[in-house]
Design a protein that fits this description.
By secondary structure, this protein is mainly alpha-helical. Helix content is 42%, strand content 8%. The chain contains five helices and three strands; from the N terminus they run αβαβααβα. A three-stranded antiparallel beta sheet has the order 2-1-3. Helix 3 packs across helix 4.
Amino acid sequence: MTRRPVDIGSPDRLYTVTGGRSRTDGASFDLVTLIVGESAPTAGMQSEHVRILELCRHPMAVVEIAAELSLPITVVRILLEDLLETGRITARHPRAARSVAALPDSALLTEVLHGLRNL
C-alpha cells in the first residue's frame, strides 16, 4: 500500500493564519488535551479562532479540533495559545502517568481479563 502525502493546505495560507509563527511560545498542548471555550466569539476575530470557540462549547481534544479545521496540529497549537493568552479558552491537560511501580500487577490484570471473557 502506497501512502500519499497529507494535504496540509497552502503554505501561504498557513503563514497568514499563524501570523508567521511556526512554534508556540509557552503553552504546550498534548494531542489529548481538552479545550473548553470560556467566551463567545466577538466581532473582528480571526475566523479560525471563531471556529475553535464554536467547536469548544463542550470539551474537545486538540486532535479533534485539528481534524475539524483541517489544519496541521502545529498550526492549531499556535491558534490555541492565542486564545489561551486572552482567556477565551481553558485547557484540561491529561493527568501524568503513574510510575510503573504504582500500576496494577500484570497477573491481576490477566485474571480480570479471563474473568471478563467468561462473562
